[in-house]
Amino acid sequence: MAIEVRIPTILRTYTDGAKAVEGTGANLGELFTDLDARHPGIAERLLEAGELRRFVNVYLNDEDVRFLDGIATEVADGDSITILPAVAGGSR
């Protein structure tokens, strides 16, 4: 088994339109390295200076990884990762 990663619409250009892809790794950092090898350029959109970009939210089985161990959060076969870009805006 592998780790399923759900890809937001804005990043699907890196995955040839796929809504979900599979990857491997012992933690999120390794998983994102694996994803970048399969889908070049995607890690640059997720990480900055080795940490999650400020406006990128990542969930491991519906838990925000910022409240776990961030990029060092351990993952295992069968886990599900959801990547969500933060949305802001509106008017007053």
Number of helices: 2
Radius of gyration: 13 Å
- Give the full name of the CATH homologous superfamily: Beta-grasp domain
Main sheet properties? 5 strands, mixed
Q: Span from first to last CA?
A: 48 Å
Runs with pLDDT <50, length 5+? none
Query: Percent of residues in beta strands?
Result: 25-35%
Describe what this molecule looks like in 3D.
A hairpin with a 2-residue loop joins strand 3 and strand 4. This protein has one domain (3-85): Beta-grasp domain (Ubiquitin-like (UB roll), Roll), CATH 3.10.20.30. Strands 2-1-7-5-6 form a five-stranded mixed sheet, covered by helices on one side. It contains two helices and seven strands. Helices cover 17% and strands 27% of the residues. The longest helix has 11 residues, at 28-38. The termini are far apart. By secondary structure, it is an alpha+beta fold. This is MoaD/ThiS family protein. Pfam families: ThiS. It comes from Kitasatospora camelliae.
Write the layout of secondary structure elements.
Blueprint: E1 3-6, E2 20-23, H1 28-38, H2 42-46, E3 47-48, E4 51-52, E5 56-60, E6 63-64, E7 80-85
Parallel strand pairs: 1-7
Antiparallel strand pairs: 1-2, 3-4, 5-6, 5-7
Labels describing this entry:
ThiS/MoaD-like; Ubiquitin-like (UB roll); 17% helix; two-stranded antiparallel ribbon; Sulfur_Carrier/Prot_Modifier; 7 strands; Beta-grasp_dom_sf; MoaD/ThiS family protein; 92 residues
